[in-house]
Every structure is written in structure tokens, then in C-alpha cells.
From TrEMBL:
GO terms for cellular component: membrane. InterPro entries: DHB_DH, NAD(P)-bd_dom_sf, SDR_fam. It comes from Multifurca ochricompacta. GO terms for biological process: siderophore biosynthetic process. PANTHER family: DEHYDROGENASE/REDUCTASE SDR FAMILY MEMBER 7B (PTHR44196), DEHYDROGENASE_REDUCTASE SDR FAMILY MEMBER 7B (PTHR44196:SF1). Belongs to the short-chain dehydrogenases/reductases (SDR) family. This is Uncharacterized protein.
Length: 181
């Protein structure tokens, strides 16, 4: 069973990442342990079915692009489906043809269940789940100045989002493991 709670594979150049980040003093480097080029050139995930939450931007977007470039069929999940159009376009810039599915959901268990069900119906199963959707809204000021409702909302989004997607994807991941033995 493959389950990634967080992955740090970065496909953008350090310059392009720095132009999209708020932190000017951030340091980005690709070193062998996190360099995705071998996975891409070897098509290491050819035939694998991958669900990526938080795929509309940031780490989730880069992970989705990397898996697609490495041969995987990718299900892009984000809160707002319209934001995924740009990610699909970015993937299609790198790959001539790739199976893609986009859907919204994260906080709503019913939407997450639909997203996982659509992935299984379209691709025949799930091999990899990458649950990176989250937020840090309300955590940008000193703790004593943090709005309690923003803090609770952040906690709820970050915990419920991961729980929901794992809850509905895990039976399919376990099925894939059992059928491969």
C-alpha cells in the first residue's frame, strides 16, 4: 500500500517557485533525495492511479504534475473545481496524453466520497493517495492575536480534510494490496 500524507517533490524551477511564494528568504534546492527527474524519466508510476487533494496550487499542484509526468493517471481534488483547469493545462503541457479527473470537495464527506468513487469508476482503483489539502489561514499572526474562530476553522479543515479522503480511499487502497498478494 502506498500512502503519502505529505511529499516534497518539486517540479518547478526554484525561480518559478520564488515568484509565487510570499517568503522572500525561502531557500529552494533540488537534491537527489527529492529530485523527481528519475521518476519522470523512468515513468515510475506508469499504470498507477493517484488521488491528490489540494491539487489546485502549491505542493499539491506540483505533486499532481510530477505524478502525471511519471506516468500516473491522476485525480485532482480541490475545494474549488474551477481552479483545477489551470492545473490540468499545466499537466497537459508536459504530457501528451494523460488520464485526468477533477472534482471538488474536502470538507464535505459526501463530496469526498463522490470524488473517490469517480476515481475508482474511471480508473478501476486507487494505488496512491496524497492528502496535502490544508490551510494556514489565521495562523499568520502571534498566537495571542489569532482569532479563535479562524484557528478552529483551520484545525477543522486540516483534520477533517485528511480524515475524509483517507476514510473513503482506504478501502480501495486495502483492496489493491489484497489483490496484489
Amino acid at each position: 500500500m502506498i500512502f503519502y500524507a505529505v511529499s516534497l517533490a518539486v517540479t518547478r524551477s526554484p525561480q518559478s517557485i520564488c515568484t509565487t511564494t510570499q517568503t522572500e528568504d525561502a531557500f529552494y534546492s533540488v537534491y537527489p533525495a527529492v529530485d523527481p527527474s528519475q521518476l519522470i524519466s523512468n515513468q515510475a508510476f506508469q499504470g498507477k492511479r493517484v488521488i491528490v487533494t489540494g491539487a489546485s496550487r502549491g505542493i499539491g499542484e506540483d505533486i499532481a504534475v510530477t505524478f502525471a509526468r511519471a506516468g500516473a493517471s491522476v485525480v485532482l481534488v480541490a475545494r474549488t473545481e474551477s481552479q483545477l483547469d489551470a492545473v490540468e493545462s499545466r499537466i497537459l503541457e508536459h504530457v501528451q496524453m494523460r488520464s485526468l479527473e477533477s472534482c471538488s470537495g474536502r470538507d464535505d464527506p459526501a463530496k469526498v466520497e463522490v470524488a473517490v468513487t469517480r476515481a475508482v469508476e474511471r480508473f478501476g482503483g486507487v494505488d496512491v493517495l496524497v492528502a496535502v489539502a490544508g490551510t494556514a489561514r489565521g495562523i499568520t499572526v502571534a498566537f495571542s492575536q489569532t482569532d479563535p474562530y479562524d484557528w478552529w476553522n483551520t484545525l477543522e479543515i486540516n483534520l477533517r480534510g485528511v480524515f475524509n479522503v483517507v476514510r473513503y480511499a482506504l478501502p480501495h487502497l486495502e483492496h489493491m494490496v489484497a489483490s496484489s498478494q
